[in-house]
Leucine zipper with capping helix domain-containing protein (Aegilops tauschii subsp. strangulata), 108 residues
Amino acid sequence: MELLEQRDDLKRGREDTDEREDALEELKAVELRHKKLKEELAAYADSDPSALEAMKDATEVAHSAANRWTDNIFTLQQWCSTTFPQAKEQLEHMYKEVGITEDFEYLQ
């Protein structure tokens, strides 16, 4: 009974009138325009200055991280060569297997 009363209270002011129908159509048109504008804005998100700055910052972080790991690899190579001098050929073979060649260098 209470729910029926609530329903009736909510229906008041929502009678189907021409004015309400026009307002609902206008609302749908505005919502559709808003959706299209959001899609258009998303298409230009790549040109957003703050997004470009964030990508530049992320690139700098990735660059320094790559150089840090390169330094770690060189340090590990030096340690292995110093610790296991008799296994030089095996170490060279292992480096080549994992992709560490003579042209392995820091990023510029």
User: Anything to note?
Assistant: Residues 1-44 form one domain. The longest helix spans residues 49-83. The chain has two domains: 1-44, 49-98. The helical segments are 2-11, 18-43, 49-83, 88-97.
